[in-house]
From TrEMBL:
The keyword Lyase applies. This is cyclic pyranopterin monophosphate synthase. The lineage of its organism: Eukaryota, Fungi, Dikarya, Ascomycota, Pezizomycotina. Residues 272-281 have a biased composition (Low complexity). Pathway: Cofactor biosynthesis; molybdopterin biosynthesis. Residues 86-95 have a biased composition (Polar residues). Its EC number is 4.6.1.17. The keyword Lyase applies. Residues 112-264 form the Molybdopterin cofactor biosynthesis C (MoaC) domain. It comes from Aspergillus brasiliensis (strain CBS 101740 / IMI 381727 / IBT 21946). It holds the Pfam family MoaC. CDD domains: MoaC_PE. It catalyses: (8S)-3',8-cyclo-7,8-dihydroguanosine 5'-triphosphate = cyclic pyranopterin phosphate + diphosphate. PANTHER family: MOLYBDENUM COFACTOR BIOSYNTHESIS PROTEIN 1 (PTHR22960:SF0), MOLYBDOPTERIN COFACTOR SYNTHESIS PROTEIN A (PTHR22960). SUPFAM superfamilies: Molybdenum cofactor biosynthesis protein C, MoaC.
Amino acid sequence: MTELLCRGRGVAPLLSSLRYPRTNPAHQAARLASCNPMILTGGQHVFNYNPTPSISNQIPWLGVSQLRSHHTTPKNKSSDPSPKPQTSKPISLPTTPDPDIPHLNASQNVHMTKIAAKPVTDRLATATCHIQFSNPRPWEILRGGGMTKKGDVSSVARIAGIMAAKRTPDIIPLCHPGIGITGVEVDVELLDPETAAKDSDGWGDLGHGAMRVVASVSCLGRTGVEMEAMTATMGAALTVYDMLKAVDKGMVVSGVRLLEKKGGKSGHWVRDGTTITTGTSSDGGSGGGK
């Protein structure tokens, strides 16, 4: 009959080794040896003895007595628990314009004028300029129909003036974009030498004829279109120069000026001495205000 027995004092040495994990390893092995099983077979003692290694090496949590509990308390970022008072300095920049020159602010720095408070009104502006010829060749070419190797001078110049009016905010830094232009009219007229001398209005007639450009721009908005009208005339005039420079590099663009403006706070304004009749009223009077 075979029965499994436990030598010595049973499980007491094992509990003792668990209770004292830091005991000398040799002493601990002797204690555990007393708990190794023994098989009795036919009256002979057969020992199945394997020295037990340190239990603390097999079971990591037995070394829990060596751990330390670390409890950290959150540190205050500031020793002063009360919040700091907010500064009274405004975040946004001031928009108050100079009373005399609106494109300057109160600090005399350039800015784009704020127009949100202005009323929406019908606005119109008309401008003009001249391209004076320095020799008779351009006049001779254009009086025969205005065709050159680059095309019809007058038609191309009109288109250039319209395109220039629409791109004015890209050219003039402080112009407002997206003002809603409602119409652009550009007229390019060839003047013979005699008519050009009378029409030059003291702008430097060269005695060989000229071309006169007139542009009118309208919008429904909070700011005027004076710059759009003058930019349209310059776009058309420079196109005339480009198309005729092969026969006359001495042409002069002169007399760029505003003839009339309507709408806005300053109302209706007309340049003194204006004699050119356009699609708008040009009664030769003088307007008031800016």
